[in-house]
UniProtKB/TrEMBL annotation, chain B:
It is a multi-pass membrane protein. Pfam families: BPD_transp_1 (PF00528). Residues 58-269 form the ABC transmembrane type-1 domain. SUPFAM superfamilies: MetI-like (SSF161098). It comes from the Bacteria. PANTHER family: ABC TRANSPORTER PERMEASE PROTEIN (PTHR30193), INNER MEMBRANE ABC TRANSPORTER PERMEASE PROTEIN YCJO (PTHR30193:SF37). Its main location: membrane. PROSITE patterns: ABC_TM1. InterPro entries: ABC_transporter_permease, MetI-like, MetI-like_sf. This is Sugar ABC transporter permease.
Length: 279, 281
């Protein structure tokens, strides 16, 4: 272990170093948390307080802003649309992406490198921009302004991640386990469902959640592709100029809450997923 | 099904999907950008680049990227090395530091609006400290510097986490023996950082930078929430061409310009931080 350093520095200097270190950690935590806390104060205050000055530094636990948010015309529909789009994105990206991840981890086939290149290529593109031509294509096919059409675009955003993450997850399970199942009478399919799937399910869930968050947070494509069926992000963006402050803050808070929960849920997988997926 | 066909069957859905929703729209947007109805033309590009706002837009986007990305890189490196030698509470600290990863750019913009708006927390704090006696409107055209600062802070706050995650994962892959050996030979912590961590972290640095720089040129919602029209950026102008001016040819041209800048910078970063052949961990 490297934890015990054999520094010749005086204990005072080391104590000071420790103090600087702890202070820095605390400051950096505050840097992340304090702005979110400010948003929380605004969300849990009455509309009058939100627009008043100076601001209190603790919430008064008034649900006025949130009630206003829920009552604002179109807001709940937008929230529902957001959840629908994100849910569809989550399912599509895993159903379409996971088989490819499995193929990459288990087989050597001609064109594998080309396929990986296609996946990695999507990384170098500002993907939301593709919503512009798709808007035209969707009008021709009747997918314009639908939740499903937007989910297709969000799936394009999420699918490279889904492929690379499931690739790394499948690679973590030794092929010997599957081979053992085959010798015990399983087919390729039953070996997969009975041996690999149970082992991989938590990881798959984590990458599904990741896809959900990607869709939930996306603003540009959502704003370009929906007009009547706005998602929450698109709705908030469209009304930025006109909506009162308390509406913005309550909306922002509703956007943040799933993020807090989801990052907590996938925290164990975050580094394994990103570490390998980004090589 | 035999093992020769199976992999192709498995990758078929993704390939079809990406062809239909990635390659095809890319061709469409290129076609749209280079035509105004009849044949090949550069009119769309001429139109967007000759617009009086275009130089400002381009400068703003570049300035923002130049201000934000280095700070994020330094901050992410600092946080990653701090976490690396942490023994107690590592998981909790990492969770807190990665929270912004899940927060959308729009929400981040709104969060920092709560701080910078006229009756916001910055004004309240300054009032409490007696610096100002009545709320000052900070985000106006008279304070372009403050608008820039607010947007840059929101971006740094939001998007450092993605670099942190990539770098922490990368540092985790560096064998501990290297550090132990360096310590035996009396290398200081700073020496260990510059001589072991940085060189071996190069692949992760590459990915983190490529990802961040591309996202920096895509900045949109943070600016919309904080600066509005005060601080035009490329992506916002693209949106305006599509919706306010209903000129999809010009929007397509803008999209290709953003694309070209992103690809250009990706290539530069890959070149600068290239990993020597055979020198992987």
């Amino acid at each position: 272990m490297t934890s015990v350093t054999t520094d010749v520095a005086a204990p005072d200097a080391r104590k000071a170093g420790k103090f600087v270190y702890v202070t820095a950690v605390v400051l950096l935590c505050a840097w992340v948390l304090v702005p979110i806390y400010f948003l929380l104060i605004n969300t849990l205050s009455s509309p009058d307080t939100v627009n008043s000055f100076p601001k209190p530094f603790w919430p008064e636990f008034d649900l006025g802003s949130l009630t206003f948010f829920a009552g604002f015309a179109g807001m709940l529909t937008a929230l529902k649309n957001s959840i629908l789009v994100a849910g569809m994105t989550m399912i599509m990206s895993i159903v379409i992406g996971a088989p490819a991840g499995y193929a990459l981890s288990r087989f050597d086939f001609r064109g594998k490198e080309l396929f990986r290149l296609l996946i990695l290529l999507t990384r170098a593109f500002p993907l939301p921009l593709l919503a512009l031509p798709l808007a035209v294509m969707f009008i021709q096919t009747g997918l314009d302004d639908t939740v499903f059409g937007l989910a297709l675009v969000h799936t394009t955003l999420a699918i490279p991640f889904a492929v690379l993450i499931t690739f790394s997850l499948f690679s973590g399970i030794p092929i010997e386990l599957e081979e053992a199942a085959w010798t015990l009478g399983c087919t390729r399919l039953t070996a997969f469902t009975k041996v690999v799937l149970p082992l991989i399910l938590p990881g798959i869930t984590a990458s599904a959640i990741f896809a959900f968050v990607i869709s939930w947070n996306e603003v540009f494509a959502a704003a370009v592709l929906t007009i009547e069926n706005r998602t929450l992000t698109a709705f908030l963006l469209q009304n930025l100029d006109t909506s009162p402050l308390h509406l913005k803050f309550a909306g922002g808070f509703i956007l943040v809450v799933p993020a807090l929960i989801f990052i907590f849920a996938v925290r164990k997988y975050l580094f394994a997923m990103w570490g390998i997926a980004n090589r | 099904m035999n093992a020769r066909v199976l992999p192709y069957v498995l990758i078929l859905p993704v390939t079809l999907f990406l062809c239909l929703f990635f390659l095809y729209p890319f061709l469409l947007v290129s076609k749209q950008a280079f035509s105004t109805g009849s044949g090949f033309t550069l009119d769309n590009f001429r139109e967007v680049t000759s617009y009086w706002k275009f130089p400002t837009t381009l400068r703003n986007t570049f300035l923002l990227a130049a201000a934000v990305v280095p700070v994020q890189l330094a901050l992410a490196l600092l946080m990653a090395t701090m976490v690396n030698k942490m023994q107690k509470g590592r998981d909790l600290i990492l969770y807190v530091w990665t929270i912004p990863l899940g927060i959308s750019d729009l929400a981040a913009g709104i969060i920092w609006l709560a701080i910078f708006e006229q009756s916001g927390f910055l004004n309240s704090m300054m009032n409490g400290l007696g610096i100002v006696d009545k709320p000052v409107n900070l985000l106006t055209f008279q304070n372009p510097g403050l608008v820039f600062l607010a947007i840059a802070l929101a971006e740094i706050w939001r998007a450092t986490a993605i670099m942190l995650v990539i770098l922490v994962a990368g540092i985790g892959l560096i064998p501990k023996e290297y550090y132990e050996a360096a310590e035996v030979f009396g290398a200081s912590p700073w020496k260990r950082f510059t001589r072991i961590t940085l060189p071996l972290l190069r692949p992760s640095l590459q990915t983190a930078l490529v990802l961040r720089v591309i996202l920096a040129f895509e900045i949109f919602a943070v600016v919309a929430a904080l600066g509005g029209t005060l601080f035009p950026v490329l992506m916002g102008e693209t949106y305006a061409y599509q919706f306010d001016l209903l000129n999809s040819g010009a929007a397509a041209a803008m999209a290709l310009i953003i694309l070209a800048i992103s690809i250009g910078f990706t290539l530069i970063i890959l070149r600068l931080l290239r990993v020597p052949k055979g020198a992987t961990i």
